[in-house]
Amino acid sequence: MKKLFAAFLAVALPVVVFAGCSKEPQPVTLKSVIGSEDSIQGRAGVCVPYDALSDDARMELVCREYNSITCENEMKPESILGQTPTFSNDVDAYGNKIPELDFTRADAILDYILDYNSKNPKDQILVRGHVLVWHSQTPTWFFREGYSATGDYVTPDEMLYREEWYIKSVIEHFDGEGSPYHGLIYAWDVVNEQIEPGDRRSDTNPDSLRLKHNGQPTDWYQVFQGDDAYITQAFVFANKYAPATVKLFYNDYNDSNMPKARAICQLIEKIKATDGARIDGMGMQGHYGIDWDYAINIEKALRLYSEVVDEVQITELDLQTGSQYDGYHYEEEYERQAKWYELFFNMIARLDHEDGIDVTAVTFWGTHDSVSWLNQSSSVGGGANGSRDQMPLLFDKDMNKKPAYYVVTGTQPEAAEET
Ligand code: GLA
């Protein structure tokens, strides 16, 4: 708990600091620390699902600690397109009735944020858009003739037409001139997880492009047969419709695996070389585990990404328990975790201070331990199988601050908080 955050320790009790020349005491929170000069001077984020909106304590924590949110599921194609399509009366260029898009749940989250922002003009929360193009949580009917789940796959040309229509519609909904949300989204994950995990480069797949998910060819692969046009063009479409101030990201996991990191950089170079495309940043999802992701690997990969993009964000940070955890002595695991988070935050702060490296946000994937996706088995990948007690975040199952929180913020429990 030395070095970078020592300054905060001096003021840890009571947990307030005096911000700049202002006499107004500011509470020390994740957003004040992550936004500070000693850290990355970036945004502190968290994912928020629709059902959190009815939990006042949880939303109080969100608004107190963070100044960036990501909708956990509500902006994914599955949420917006729906499991089964409904259609408008309009017809697209290929003679199909156009599917209707459902923004209800995403809008509800953004309405909450707008309301908070209107009451807190000096403490605005912004939104990371997540995600426009992905193979998972995207309905198969979107890729098929007649928008029918049992139809044949459409041609690549027709799919690019649909992809452009989808990206345009979603971006315009949230950021069109007349949209109440205009200006709220500061970054989009344009494409998610299109490089194979690990080193699966082969003669038939030299670019390590994502071919399968859960053992089955992805719908994008079925249509494009290994051509990466749907990725490069996604960045053309996003650039065409998003305001220039909105940062465009490629986002992926296993992000500290070096063969994969190199393949991602190669893809980013291809995107950059595509006419009309723009890519500003690399989203390192940051689903790490105490056993396998030491800060040193993450540092190496972050340096590599910084060579090809202007900024890096940690977009879905959490930490799986290690093999030393026996399922009972959680205090020891809390300490190991606090140590890990300390190394991690010191590392990104140090890198951010180097020329040519800009880490602009860290988003945690969940407010507190009991709502983490890692508690259940997950079909979207990432290794969550529900078999082990998980405590990946900075707040425990009751939303109390954990040792890792105190290390990251350089604060100490107040007397009333101690148990
Ligand atoms: C991936 C996705 C996220 C989320 C997590 C697991 O990392 O990018 O949207 O689904 O998996 O919850």
Please describe what this structure looks like.
It is built from twelve helices and 15 strands. With 419 residues, it is an alpha/beta fold. It has an eight-stranded parallel barrel with strand order 3-4-7-8-11-12-14-15, surrounded by five helices. A two-stranded antiparallel sheet has the order 1-2. The chain binds alpha-D-galactopyranose (GLA). Alpha-D-galactopyranose is lined by residues 130, 192, 253, 285, 316, 373, 378, 380, 382.
Oligomer: single chain
The Rg value, from CA coordinates, equals 21 Å
- How are strands sequenced across the largest beta sheet? 3-4-7-8-11-12-14-15
Cofactors and ligands present? alpha-D-galactopyranose
Major beta-sheet overview: 8 strands, parallel, barrel
The tally of helices reads 12
- The low-confidence runs, each spanning 5 or more residues with pLDDT under 50, are 1-21
**Helix and strand string, N-terminal first?**
HEEHEHEHEEHEHEEEHHEHEEHEHEH
**N-to-C CA distance:** 21 Å
Keyphrases for this structure?
419 residues; alpha/beta; eight-stranded parallel barrel; 33% helix; disordered N terminus; binds alpha-D-galactopyranose
